[in-house]
Amino acid sequence: MATSNQLMFARQLGATARLLIWLLVGLACVIADSRYHALEGLRSGFSLLLQPVREILRVPADVATELGGFFTRHRLLQNERDALRIERAGLLASVHAGREISRENAELRALLKLQTRPGQQLVHAAMLYRGHDWFAQQLVLDQGARAKLRPGLPVVDASGLVGQLSQVYANSSEVTLVSSPNQLTPVFIERTGQRGLAAGSGRGALELKYMPGNADVRVNDRLLTSGIDRVYPAGIPVARVTRVTHTQSGPYLRVACAPLAGLDRSRAVLVLRADPPAVQTPLPLPPKDNKP
C-alpha cells in the first residue's frame, strides 16, 4: 500500500530509459545548434565565465616562457659583452703599437736629416736595453764589431750627444752616457765661444766645470762639443744651461746643465765612425840620366 508521501502508480525509470532520454536531449541540442544556432548565446556565456580560469591556467606557462627568455637574453648579452671587451683590448693594443711606430718613424726621420762629414760614416743602431748597472749610466746597442765599431766612438741621436762606446762585442756594444760620473766632455758655449768641460753628475744631468766667476754664462746657453779631444767631432749639441750659481767659497761658478739628447727616450741612435786615413802611394821618381 502506498504511503502518504508517494504518488500512486509512480514508477522509477530505469538506467536504460534515462540514458535514452539524455541521448535524445543531446541529439536535439546538436540538431538545434547546427541548424538554428540556438546554443550560441549559451556558448558565449560559458566562454565568458571560463575566461578567468583560462587566464589563471596560462600564467605558469607564461612565467616559464619569460624566465627562459630572460636567461637566454642574459647569456647573449654576456657573450656580446665579452666579445666587445676582447675587441676593445685588440683596438687599444693596435693604437699603442701605432703610436710607438709613429714615434720610431719620427726619430728615424730626424736621424736621416743628419749629414755626414768628410771622412766620417754613420752607423745606425737601436737600443736593446739599459746596462746591468743602473748607476753606471749605460745603454746596450744592437751593433758591434761586425759593423766595424770600436771603443771610443761617439754616439748621437737626433737631438745631441748620447755618449761614447765603452765596450764592443761581436753583435752588441755598450754606451757610457754623457751624464755618467766617469764621462768628461770638452765643450764650448755656442753664444760666446768660451770653452769648458762638461762632467756627468750620474743623475741624468751635467755640470760645466771650472768656469771663472766672471764668465759670461747664462741660462739656456747651449753647449757644443769643442773637438779638442779628437774624440767627439766639433759642433755636436751636448747640453743646455739650466742654472748658474755664484759661490762665495770658490772662484768658480756652479753651472748645472741638462742633456739635449734623449738619454732615456731614444730608440734609434747613430754611431759616428771615422774612416781610416787613406794610404797615399808615393809617386815614382823620374829615371836618372846616366849619361856622362
Bin the helical content: 25-40%
Classify the fold: give the CATH topology of the largest domain: Thrombin, subunit H
Structural class: alpha+beta
In the CATH hierarchy, what is the superfamily of the largest domain? Rod shape-determining protein MreC, domain 1
Alpha carbon gyration radius: 51 Å
Number of domains: 2
CATH class identity of the largest domain = Mainly Beta
The strand line-up of the biggest sheet is 1-2-5-4-3-12
Question: Using DSSP, what is the number of strands?
Answer: 12
- Principal-axis shape equals rod-shaped
The overall average pLDDT, rounded, is 79
| CATH architectural designation of the largest domain | Beta Barrel
Runs with pLDDT <50, length 5+?
A: 277-281
Number of helices: 2
Helices and strands, in order, run as HHEEEEEEEEEEEE
Termini separation comes to: 201 Å
Strand content: 25-35%
For the largest beta-sheet, the strand count, sense and barrel status come to: 6 strands, antiparallel, barrel
Task: Characterise the protein shown here.
The chain contains two helices and twelve strands; from the N terminus they run ααββββββββββββ. The longest helix is centred in the first third of the chain and has 73 residues, at 40-112. Strands 1-2-5-4-3-12 form a six-stranded antiparallel β-barrel. By secondary structure, the chain is α+β, with helices and mostly antiparallel strands. It is rod-shaped, with a radius of gyration of 51 Å. The chain has helices at 15-36, 40-112, and strands at 120-130, 138-141, 154-156, 161-168, 173-177, 184-189, 195-200, 206-212, 222-225, 237-246, 252-259, 268-274. The chain has two domains: 17-113; 120-274, Thrombin, subunit H, CATH 2.40.10.340. The model is unreliable at 277-281 (pLDDT under 50).
